[in-house]
Specification:
single chain; alpha+beta; Aminopeptidase; 5-stranded mixed beta sheet; 5 helices; 5 strands; globular
Length: 151
């Protein structure tokens, strides 16, 4: 399967949102709601304007969005370095297991080098055991325990 990675465009929003919400854990989360199209467009514009953000899409040879991830370049003063935070990694269900995720993370690594980052970091829901094993197969290590405060 021939695929390509590119920066998301406003026309990709619906496909991205579908990938994010077509997820077992999202469906279990009663707080997950689909927002108005204009709200997604407004958030997209904020992300798109920010040079430290990269909303990635992977498309197949037909131009269909089959994967997405949101990258954020973080600047850390204590270490005077940069890190890439990876969020919302999704691959469309019908193409999972075909190497798309691995290819995405190879591309993410290249982007991190381009951004002169010292590391790539991500979090994954503790219930995503397959995802954790996948990240470990790529060399990622579970070095910290993540915590959240919901407001």
């Amino acid at each position: 399967m021939k695929v390509s990675v590119r920066k998301a465009k406003v026309d990709d929003i619906y496909s991205i949102v579908q990938l994010i919400h077509d997820d077992v854990l999202r469906k279990l989360d009663s707080s997950t709601i689909l927002l108005d199209k204009k709200e997604y467009q407004d958030f997209f514009k904020r992300i798109d304007r920010d040079e430290n953000q990269f909303l990635m899409v992977v498309e197949n040879e037909h131009g269909d969005v089959i994967g997405t991830s949101h990258l954020t370049l973080l600047h850390y003063i204590p270490f005077c370095d940069r890190r890439v935070m990876v969020e919302f990694v999704r691959v469309r269900k019908d193409v999972q297991g075909k190497g798309i995720g691995r290819m995405m993370f190879e591309w993410i690594k290249e982007k991190a080098v381009e951004w002169e980052a010292s590391r790539i970091q991500l979090t994954t829901d503790k219930r995503r055991l397959r995802a954790k094993l996948f990240y470990e197969s790529l060399g990622y290590q579970a070095t910290h325990e993540g915590m959240k405060l919901f407001l």
